[in-house]
Amino acid sequence: MGDTFIRHIALLGFEKRFVPSQHYKQLKEMFPIEAGDINAENRIIPHLPAPRWFDGQRVAESRQGTLTEYFGALMSLPVKISRCPHLLDFFKVRPDDLKLPTDNQVKKPETYLVPKDSKNNSVTDITGPIILQTYRAIADFEKSSGSQMALATGDVVDVVEKSESGWWFCQTKTKRGWVPASYLEPLDSPDEAEDPEPNYEGEPYVTIKAYTAQMEDEVSLQEGETIDVIHKLLDGWWVVRKGDVTGYFPSMYLQKSGQDAAQAQRQIKSRGAPPRRSSIRNAHSIHQRSRKRLSQDTYRRNSVRFLQQRRRQARPEPQRSAREQAQTGGAKPQPAVPPRPSADLILHRCSESTKRKLASAV
């Protein structure tokens, strides 16, 4: 009987786990070449779709389709990856999969996902609950518009959507609205597990609103400047590069070249850039250690190193003169001449006829 492997995957529903399995991170560590960690051009492992948690059915079904494409791409990878024990273990049923979470403020069912053909299904076809991520407010937040939600220190909220702008749509049992991500912290750790790694190659963006730096680790830019984004952080303050200078800049004030900036301008007018964590007064965290963040010195050093390496790779080889080519590479390489064998070795290897002629000559 052959080895067990997966032939087909049908995604019927999904839920947000309070303690993720980190299978994607471990898979990249097992296959660094195929993950593009050594050379991005060699990447074949698909990107894990970014989570977006809504209570709307249409968006939930869209998320389901995206995950289906991701799993299909995993199964089409070479056998050494698609049939490796780590990937097979990820799809095994665990005891916790058969238990519904208890109704507490950390783990509680929020939304049920119905398959797309729900018109032909009964209520019994509904899958298990989607569990939203739960966060805690580290300080009081006063809302400034009707679309925002006020918070008091210690409030526990469920995050429905994490916008790249740094404004997250949250809800409690009695209210919902937009909240700055900088005012929230995970319950299990001060760090954001979903924060991506820096990309020192950078993505080109254009500033759609000028900003003057308020802190020494920020960067001032005028409207219409082109920069590279090298780290997209979930709190909405991205690390950008202008020449050899790096610094934090509000992601709300950035737009990819060629895209319509009208919607982004409306968001800026309605909410503005979210405050940074370092600017919040009287913040109280439940975690003993602080959030891990790279310093701007580290960003600059790694960025300069990357740019120097890219310039060296793009630099053409210097043209050599005809004289240099003649001296070094102009002529065809000659084969190496082996050393002359000793007289005893020649006498030992020659034929019997040659040996007799040599003996008679003596």
Brief characterization of the structure:
This protein has 362 residues and is α+β, with helices and mostly antiparallel strands.
How would you describe the overall organization of this protein?
Keywords: Cytoplasm, Phosphoprotein, Repeat, SH3 domain. Residues 314-323 have a biased composition (Basic and acidic residues). The strands form 3 sheets. The protein has a 5-stranded antiparallel beta sheet, with no helix packed on it. A 5-stranded antiparallel beta sheet has the order 11-10-9-8-12, covered by helices on one side. It starts with 22 loop residues before the first helix and ends with a helix. The relative contact order is 0.09. It is built from 9 helices and 12 strands. Helix content is 25%, strand content 15%.
Write the layout of secondary structure elements.
Elements: H1 23-30, H2 57-75, H3 79-82, H4 85-90, E1 111-112, E2 129-130, E3 133-137, E4 156-162, E5 167-171, E6 176-180, E7 184-186, E8 203-207, E9 226-231, E10 237-242, E11 245-250, E12 254-255, H5 262-270, H6 296-314, H7 322-329, H8 343-349, H9 352-361
Antiparallel strand pairs: 1-2, 3-4, 3-7, 4-5, 5-6, 8-9, 8-12, 9-10, 10-11
